[in-house]
Each structure stands twice: as structure tokens, then as C-alpha cells.
Amino acid sequence: MNNLHSEHHSLPHLCQGSNKKPLEIYVFVNPLCPECWALEPILKKLQIEYGQLITLKHVLSGNLEQLNVGYAKKKFENLAKNWEKIANRSGMSCDGSLWLENPISTPFAASIAIKAAGLQGKKQGIRFLRKLQEVLFLEKQNVAEESVLIQCAEHVGLDVKEFIQDLHSKQAAKAFQCDLKITSEMDVKEIPTLVFFNEKVEEEGIKIAGYYSYETYVHIIKEMLEVEVEPLPLPPLRSFLAYFQFVASKEVAVVYGMTIEDAEKELKKLQLQQLVEKVPVKYGTFWRSIEEKCR
């Protein structure tokens, strides 16, 4: 495994693990939720260190009645303030001025689009979700607009013609409704929420509502497995960047157990080698790999 870590192609294997895994984690998210965006660094680290033991299943959540009711001006102002506050606290940039300049009138459209992308495969759906979050939180693009959704689909390599058809299909809408039903059945009231299940079907899952430290989630994994498990070693930073392509300084800091300052020192070394480019955002910095994708 250590030898594999020196190769770029090892990271997809680490993140996917084997076919049969002892734990399944339901990750309840809303694509417009900045707290869910803030969870990204922790999810990456879980994938890398415990990907051989866990399967992550994203479930799109949200109150459909609320989503269908237009937001009032005061609501927009509150959303903008909340986004700015969470960006400052979490280190994952999000620009709240979107809600004042170009508010999203039909928030559920993003969830339908993610389900349409997922019809082309689970990986494609997850990549589309990530890209949608990037254009929403960093670029202030209105993800209710079909042109923006199509650009996201193109970027992650979807069959765009098929995506557009699925975007307006009953199948995508039904898939989203199914996620809302799961949310209701599991009595999930807060987003994000992670629910951990093991192979023992008679045992109930462990529900963790809200945002917690990485160590909290690892403790639950070990508790549910009832054995001491060691995390897999982390891959070289260059491999991490080549695999994920576009990441925040915060994501690197969390995954590699560094301060933001130390993470950026290491990233600047890769920048000097012309392996990554720096992308300034409203809060903090993102980095884009210049190397060929390793997926």
C-alpha cells in the first residue's frame, strides 16, 4: 500500500476501496447549504483514510414546501449574512452577495439536476454536485438557470444531451422525491446529518446531526466496527491535487493535519514547480491542478 501511495493512480483506489464494505454512511446534504460545503474537507479525509471500510451515500434533503415558496427580501439578506458568517468560520469560502445580486428563485432545481447527473452513474452525480457547489459558492452563479447547470455537466464530462433530457424527466424528479422520503423516514431535521450503518441489519444506525470534528466521525467508525482500525497512509500532496483537481487550502489543511499557513507553504512549492495554480476567492484560496486528471 505504501508503494502504491507514491503513484498517482492509487488515489482513486483508496477512495473507492473494495466492493464490499462493512459500513455505509448516509450523508444528508442540501446543495445550497454552506454548512454542507464546509463538510467537504472532512468527507475527503474519510474517503482517503477509511475508504476501504466505508461507502458514502449522498441523500439530497430540504423542505420542499419551503423551497417552492419564494424568498422575501429579508430572507435574502439573512441568507447573505449567514453565508458570510459560515465562510469566515469554516474556511470554505462562500460569497453571500449572491442572494443580494442574483438570488435563486427555484432552489430545488439544483437538486433535480444532481439527480439527473446521477442517472449517468454515482461518480458522475458526486462530481456534478461538487462542481455545482463551486460555481454557486465561489462564482456566485445562479444554479437555478439551466445554462449554468449545462456548463457544470460539460465540465464534469457528462453526456450533455442525455443530461438535458434527464433534467426534465420524471425519473430525476422521482429520484429527488425518493431522497426527501428517506430524509423524512430517518427523521433527519438538520442539514448536514450523517447516519452510520453497519452490516448488522437488526441494529439501528447512529445519527450525527450538524457539523463535528473529524475525530468524532472516526470514533463512530471504530465504535461500530468494534475493532481497532488504522487509517490508510495519506497520499503525496501532488497525487491528492491531481485526483481532486480543484481544492481549498482548508481541504488540504484538514486532510493532512496542517495549519492553513503550513498547507499553503506546501501548495506554493507545487506552484513553483508549475504543478498547480493559485485561485484567490473571497475567503481564502483554492488551488487548481495543472496536471492531467487521475481518475
Structure, described:
By secondary structure, this protein is of the alpha+beta class. Mean pLDDT is 88; it is low at 1-18 and 64-70. The chain has 16 helices and seven strands. β6 (276-280) and β7 form a beta hairpin. It is globular. α8 (108-118) packs antiparallel against α9 and α9 (122-137) packs across α10. The chain has helices at residues 2-5, 10-16, 34-38, 40-50, 64-68, 73-90, 98-101, 108-118, 122-137, 146-155, 160-167, 170-185, 214-225, 237-244, 249-256, 260-272; strands spanning 23-29, 54-60, 193-197, 206-209, 246-248, 276-280, 285-289. It starts with a helix and ends in a 6-residue tail after the last strand. The strands form two sheets. A four-stranded mixed beta sheet has the order 2-1-3-4, sandwiched between helices. A three-stranded antiparallel beta sheet has the order 5-7-6.
Brief sketch in words of this structure:
By secondary structure, the protein is an alpha+beta fold.
- Total number of β-strand segments? 7
Distance between the termini: 18 Å
Q: Give the rounded overall mean pLDDT.
A: 88
Percent of residues in helices comes to 40-55%
Tell me the strand percentage band: 5-15%
- The helix/strand order is HHEHHEHHHHHHHHEEHHEHHEE
| Major β-sheet strand ordering | 2-1-3-4
List the total number of helices. 16
Apparent shape: globular
The largest sheet, given as strand count, sense and whether it forms a barrel, is:
4 strands, mixed
**SS content category:** alpha+beta
Rg, nearest Å: 19 Å
List segments where confidence is low: pLDDT < 50 over at least 5 consecutive residues.
1-18, 64-70
